[in-house]
């Protein structure tokens, strides 16, 4: 059997609360103008029977259903181990694709044989909000710009390049069992760029993803405390110059000041949690960094 052009590695801890989202993603894949792909579904469920959800799509899409212990980076690596495509992508189970996404990515790689990766951005077509603070310029990524040009659901790579760096760092991301419960989608492109691989960023390549308006309540502040240390940790782990690290660490400090001045105290607490988390993570990353 001929290997597909794309392997879409879909990792999920699905439940009955995520059925509609996965069905939306799979339906969007059925509408792709480029149909040369496989879907590797990496199932991390203990109880929910994902095969029932996948059954209506099995004769319409090339789906490989495998299982993995919990852990987002771990399960992505497990999916890559069985994937056969020339290019890898990592759609979230609640994202979905416009019909021309894969054909655009295929055309990019055909026209840019020296590029190892292509990144787009994640955005909500209903709210108009982006998943993160993305750069507005088309350009080749550097290790300094990776944070404004990377989100896992909009990352596409040549399979050889991603294997060259050993895949995702399993000590990072949700379910890793460490303090670093995020930023695996920053870490991977940074390591690729550090090895000399070229990654292009195109903000017009949009992957749809829910982005509700932010409410600075206790749950949002708790997420900032939980996730922000990973960001600082990467700055320390990868030995970013102090000027870059200070700029990244200082952004939430500016948010604290501006929010306090405008009387938005919930938002100020959010930025303060992010500042403390990033600073603590950065110091930990610096301590663990192996000297050059």
Mean pLDDT: 94
Mind describing the biggest β-sheet? 8 strands, mixed
**CATH H-level superfamily of the largest domain:** Spore Coat Polysaccharide Biosynthesis Protein SpsA, Chain A
Order of helices and strands: EHEHEHEHEEEHHEHHH
Structure description:
With 292 residues, this protein is an alpha/beta fold. The chain has helices at residues 19-30, 50-54, 72-82, 101-111, 159-164, 184-194, 218-237, 242-261, 265-288, and strands spanning 6-12, 37-43, 63-67, 87-89, 115-123, 139-140, 155-158, 198-208. It has an eight-stranded mixed sheet with strand order 3-2-1-4-7-5-8-6, sandwiched between helices. Helix 7 (218-237) packs parallel to helix 9. The chain is globular, with a radius of gyration of 19 Å. The mean pLDDT is 94.
Brief summary of the model shown:
Keywords: Transferase. This protein is α/β, with parallel strands linked by helices and 292 residues long.
Which keywords apply here?
9 helices; eight-stranded mixed beta sheet; 292 residues; globular; Spore Coat Polysaccharide Biosynthesis Protein SpsA, Chain A; transferase activity; transferase; alpha/beta
Topology readout:
Blueprint: E1 6-12, H1 19-30, E2 37-43, H2 50-54, E3 63-67, H3 72-82, E4 87-89, H4 101-111, E5 115-123, E6 139-140, E7 155-158, H5 159-164, H6 184-194, E8 198-208, H7 218-237, H8 242-261, H9 265-288
Helix pairs in contact: 7-9, 8-9
């Amino acid at each position: 059997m001929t290997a597909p052009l794309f392997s879409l590695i879909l990792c999920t801890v699905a439940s009955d609360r995520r059925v509609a989202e996965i069905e939306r993603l799979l339906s969007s894949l059925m509408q792709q103008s480029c149909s040369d792909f496989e879907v590797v579904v990496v199932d991390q469920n203990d109880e929910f029977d994902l095969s029932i959800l996948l059954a209506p799509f099995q004769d319409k899409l090339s789906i490989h259903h495998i299982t993995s212990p919990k852990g987002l980076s771990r399960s992505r690596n497990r999916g890559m181990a069985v994937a056969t495509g020339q290019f890898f992508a990592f759609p979230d189970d609640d994202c979905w694709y416009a019909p021309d996404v894969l054909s655009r990515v295929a055309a990019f790689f055909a026209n840019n044989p020296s590029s190892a990766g292509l990144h787009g951005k994640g955005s909500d077509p209903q709210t108009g909000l982006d998943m993160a603070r993305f750069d507005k310029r088309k350009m080749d990524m550097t290790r300094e710009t990776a944070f404004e040009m990377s989100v896992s659901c909009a990352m596409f790579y040549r399979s050889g390049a991603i294997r060259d760096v050993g895949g995702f760092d399993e000590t990072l991301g949700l379910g890793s069992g460490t303090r670093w419960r995020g930023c695996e989608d920053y870490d991977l492109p940074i390591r690729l760029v550090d090895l000399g691989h070229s990654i292009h960023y195109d903000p017009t390549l949009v992957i749809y993803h829910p982005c509700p308006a932010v409410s600075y309540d206790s749950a949002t502040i708790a997420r900032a405390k939980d996730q922000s240390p990973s960001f600082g940790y990467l700055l320390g782990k990868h030995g970013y110059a102090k000027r870059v690290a200070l700029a990244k660490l200082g952004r939430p400090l500016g948010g604290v000041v501006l929010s306090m001045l405008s009387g938005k105290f919930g938002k100020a607490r959010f930025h303060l949690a992010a500042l403390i988390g990033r600073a603590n993570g950065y110091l930990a990353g610096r301590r663990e960094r192996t000297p050059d």
